[in-house]
Amino acid sequence: MSLTYPGFAPARPRRRFAAKLIGLLAELVEHIGILRMVTLQTLKTKYMKNPMGLLLEFLQPVVICTAHCTFFELTSRPVPGHQYVTFTLGGFTIWFCFIGCYRQTLRLGGRSPGVLAIPGVTPMHLYLSTAIWSYFVYFTFAMLVAYPCRLLGLMIHPPALGLTMITYGIAAAMGFGFGLCVGALAEVIPALGPFIKLFKWAVFVTSGIYDSLVTMSPVIAPYIWYNPLIHLAEYQRMAFYAGYPVYLVTLWYPFAWAVGLVTVGLVTNRALANRRKLRKFTG
């Protein structure tokens, strides 16, 4: 029999909650340390033998954006405010961030035996580290691209920092989650490869890179709206050019897609990992 006094609650539940909270924070700090170590190790392995690889990662979006911006201006493509440079940069850099995180997660994550041999490192740490690096590369490109443009006589200001962090963060999370989902599907059903390529092409064409919802035909605009990347592209254009119209899009829609893709990707990868362990145990 325990004695309690009026006005005083038992201390045990509070202590248990505090202990759990401290344990979760310690685990989070440990995982952050592992991610930092894995990212540095992966970059050292990737760029040690090929120092020009990092430069090429920045030059590729420069060449693609320059070619498309020239094409848009020569063909007098309908662009809000005739801001061809910001229109091109806002659309393509979001796509680069999304597809870069997707490819890194799909191709490099979990496929580095040397790093996986380190105690405490799991394939999920590799998935996250490669996605974080892709986010860092394209976010840095977006923040610095205005300065060389000014040397060429183009009056472009660096994008809004807060909005750029949000749009690129959502795009990176979507690419990371999409990579996890596609990797799991490809493992279960290898024959889906050609269909996934067609799906990626459809996503690219409808992602708002070549058209804005404002200037798009009202017949197809309601359908293109359902691609979450066009919402991010329109907001990133506003980050470069404050007068860009974004009244037809919202950030909540792509955010919901990012949460859904990451959740489904994590759940399916956990299920596949348990399936592999079971096969290894029973086989």
List keywords for this structure.
single chain, 283 residues, mainly alpha, 11 helices
Q: Residue share in helices?
A: over 70%
What oligomeric state best describes the polypeptide chains here?
A: single chain
| Total strand segments | 0
Q: Main sheet, how many strands, which sense, barrel?
A: none
- The class by helix and strand makeup works out as mainly alpha
Shape: globular
Mean pLDDT: 78
Q: Could you tell me how far the N terminus lies from the C terminus, measured between alpha carbons in angstroms?
A: 53 Å
Query: What is the helix tally?
Result: 11
The arrangement of helices and strands along the chain is HHHHHHHHHHH
Q: State which percent range the strand residues make up.
A: under 5%
Query: What integer value in Å does the Rg equal?
Result: 23 Å
pLDDT below 50 for ≥5 consecutive residues: which ranges? none
Protein model, in words:
This protein has 283 residues and is mainly α. It has one domain (23-282). 72% of the residues lie in helices and 0% in strands. The chain has 11 helices and no strands. It has helices spanning 12-47, 52-74, 84-108, 113-116, 123-144, 146-151, 161-188, 193-205, 221-224, 228-240, 252-282. Helix 3 (84-108) crosses helix 10 (228-240), helix 7 runs antiparallel to helix 10 (228-240) and helix 7 packs parallel to helix 11. The chain is globular. The model has no long low-confidence stretch (mean pLDDT 78).
